[in-house]
Amino acid sequence: MMGVSRILDINRQLWRIVGMALQALWAYKLRSLFVVAGVALGIASLTVIVAAVDGAERKANEIVRWFGPDAVLVFGGNMESRAVGQRSLTLSYADADALRRSLPAAYLVVPMRGKSNQSLRFENRVVQVPLVIGTAEGYAEAWNWPLVEGRDLSAEDLARGAKVGLIGDNTARELFGARSPVGHTVLINKVPVQIVGRLSYRGVVSGSGSIDDRIIIPITTLTQRFNLNRKYFRALRVKFHAPELMTEHIANLRSLLRHLHHLEPGELDDFTILSSEEILKFLSMFKGGLILFLGVTALVAMTVGGFVLANLFYLSINERRMEIGLKKALGARNWAILCQVLIEAVCLTLIGALLGMGLGMALGQLLARLGLLQILFSWKVFGMAVTAALTIGVLFGLKPARQAAALNPIEVLKSAG
Amino acid sequence: MNGSEPIIDLEQIDKTYLQGDLTIEVLKGIDLSVAPGEFIALQGASGSGKSTLMHILGLLDRPSSGRYLFQGQNVAQLADDRLSELRNRQFGFIFQSFYLVPYVTALENVMLPGLYSATPTRQLRQRAQQLLDQVGLADRMNFRPSQLSGGQQQRVAMARALINDPPLLLADEPTGQLDSTTSAGIMELLVEMHRQGRTVILVTHEAEVSAAAERIIVLHDGRIANP
Fold first, then answer.
1. Cα–Cα dist A48/A45, whole Å
2. A407 contact partners, CB below 8 Å, separation of at least 6
3. Cβ-Cβ contacts under 8 Å, A414 against chain B
4. What separation in angstroms does the CA of B135 have from each of B123, B160, B177?
5. Cross-chain Cβ contact A332/B103 below 8 Å
6. Which letter does DSSP use for residue B5 in this model?
7. How confident is the model over A64-119, as pLDDT tens digits?
8. How far is residue B29's CA from residue B52's CA, in Å, rounded to a whole number?
9. Which residues of B touch A23 (CB under 8 A)?
10. Is A417 part of the contact surface with chain B (CB cutoff 8 Å)?
11. How many inter-chain contacts (A to B, CB under 8 Å) are there?
12. How far apart are alpha carbons A324 and B58 in whole angstroms?
């Protein structure tokens, strides 16, 4: 029974101390304001970093899902060490044929060539598409990109150099509105192309615009009508069976291409193989950079906030020596004084955390709108902000609090009198 | 003096401070016994050691040597927290500079020592209101100290001293910052508190103020000058 009443007693004491702390916060508004502002800025940057990293991760997963774990994209030219004067048109149709014949695991080998910034016309509407892509049959399968209507390009389209095409969702919407584009003919730079299929909406935004702004025609049609090199193409999409053996598949692909290109040992590749693993590697590097850069910023900002708190509390404790000494003289125990100062500090940092989170999310919205980062709010952000705030409050509040608790009432009351 | 056990019993109390290499003896061999219900004035010039004695009596400071029995209990052996508790329950402090918390109301100032006790808040509030009424500040309960005159502030402080209903009041120059008319009112109040049965120890350097006391102890150079 003794223990229970003691706990109740301590509980009551704590609530009274919280009350006193809140009164002091209200009484010293300027101090409160500065501490809250200092902490809020730190928490805001923390919020942005956590949300941005989460957003980047989600985006990375989306890109990888869309790219496909069982596929690679081969570019002509070496992207890592772009030698001066190196050709970037190194992949030939002969290479593609050889791959089809010699790599049993590769069930889909699709060459690609693009022509950028073309104008597209239907009736009296004109839109600019960033990319007209020439490719082989099976585009939808090669890119795991289902059609919502119509059909994919066929082998026959390719053989004939047929003037048919697939249309991206955005482009379709812009040219046709609510109407179905399938069966209509659009003009790509005066070349009439009949739309045979429409790609589903994918919604990935990259540097050069939306991925849904595009039109896809047979690569034969593209080279003939747009007068491009007929022997080489720009990129090659390859899909493999048995994705668990991707490392081996990629090694085989690489050595075959090196053989086909007559590269001596020690010579650099004249092509680049991009796999989902490579993309993940790049994205995690990007994420790492983001964490490092924003993390250092957030850490610095929060440390500054902490020091602002510690400094203002030192000043404030000094200013309130009489009050603290008096309370001790009147029977406040050391822990009661310690608790009051700590509670004051933690209350302010928590308010700062909430404010900072709001600020961070607003900033995130702005960045998201500018297309710089994708920001996600999560309970993780909330949890981290609150934890960080508590840590700052206790860490930087502890020293002033202990100083306050250690005040000798007679020193204080003597000097004030 | 009645015949009961003394509330305070000091035996050969010394207090020395180190100041650089110098040892300063502030109190030398103080023997003092205070019976419950007494009204004592501790009188002395500044530097006589009366403030130090007052701090030791009020458990704010510890003697360098000697024995202090408070209600028969040797306080030298008590931990700081236990001393805090004793100050809270057994002592009412009244200071020369009032020492009110500037940013809370008169009522909240009166309640302050009670907040560190186990008394329920509602009861504290009621009692604080009664006490403010008794000291004549019923209409000033929600005023801040800065909105009160010096005399009114000291009345608030006196009401505060009584909130935990302590048996002992320690008043350190309670009228030191007040004009004579106001001082008279404060002294009247102190006498009234004594009449209610409390032991009062009043520290002062003014002989007229000591006149209210039943027993005057004169301190000179750290010793009790009158037997």
1. 5
2. A321, A324, A325, A328, A337
3. 51
4. 19, 11, 18
5. no
6. P
7. 877 888 888 898 887 666 555 567 788 888 898 898 888 888 888 888 888 888 88
8. 13
9. 103-104, 108
10. yes
11. 68
12. 17
Q: Compute the distance between CA of residue A41 and CA of residue A302 in angstroms, rounded to an integer.
A: 7
Strands A209-210 and A106-122: unpaired
| Among the partner residues A27, A331, A414, nearest to B88 by beta-carbon distance | A331
> Mean pLDDT, chain B, as a whole number?
92
Q: Which residues pair with B199 in a beta bridge?
A: B168
User: Does B46 contact A at CB distance below 8 Å?
Assistant: no
Interface membership of A411 toward B (CB under 8 Å)? no
* DSSP tag of B93: E
Give the C-alpha distances (Å, rounded to integers) separating A12 from A5, B89, B115: 10, 17, 9
Cα–Cα distances in Å, from B120 out to A12, B141, B164? 9, 19, 12
Measured between beta carbons, the chain A residues lying within 8 angstroms of B118 are 9, 12
Q: Name every chain B residue with its beta carbon within 8 A of the beta carbon of A9.
A: 118
Contact by Cβ (8 Å): B131, B159: yes
User: What are A325's two structure tokens?
Assistant: 């000494």
Residues 187-216 of B with CB under 8 A from A: none
Confidence at residue A82, expressed as pLDDT on a 0 to 100 scale: 58
Candidates A18, A32, A330: best to mutate against B (most CBs of B within 10 A) is: A330
Contacts of A357 (CB under 8 A, 6+ apart): A43, A44, A47, A381, A382, A385
The interface residues of chain B toward chain A in range 62-101, judged by CB-CB distance below 8 A, are 80-81, 84-85, 87-89, 93, 95-97, 99, 101
Contact across the interface for A23 and B81, Cβ inside 8 Å:
no
Closest to A193 measured CA to CA, from A209, A201, A182: A182
Concatenated DSSP letters for A114-132?
EEEEEEEEETTEEEEEEEE
Cβ count near A192 (within 10 Å): 11
Closest CA to A357 of A330, A329, A379: A379
Residue B170, helix vs strand vs coil: strand
pLDDT mean over B33-61: 92
> Over pLDDT 90: what percentage of chain A?
32
> How long, in residues, is chain A?
417
Please tell me whether the interface predicted TM-score (ipTM) of this complex is above 0.90.
Answer: yes
Residue A406 is encoded by which pair of tokens? 């250690």
Q: Which of B61, B88, B97 sits opposite A416 (nearest CB)?
A: B97
What angle do the packed helices A276-319 and A29-67 form, to 10 degrees? 170
Residue B25 at interface with chain A, using a CB cutoff of 8 Å: no
CA angle A221, A227, A231 (to 5 degrees): 80
Give me the phi and psi of B6, to 5 degrees please.
-65, 145
pTM confidence score: 0.76
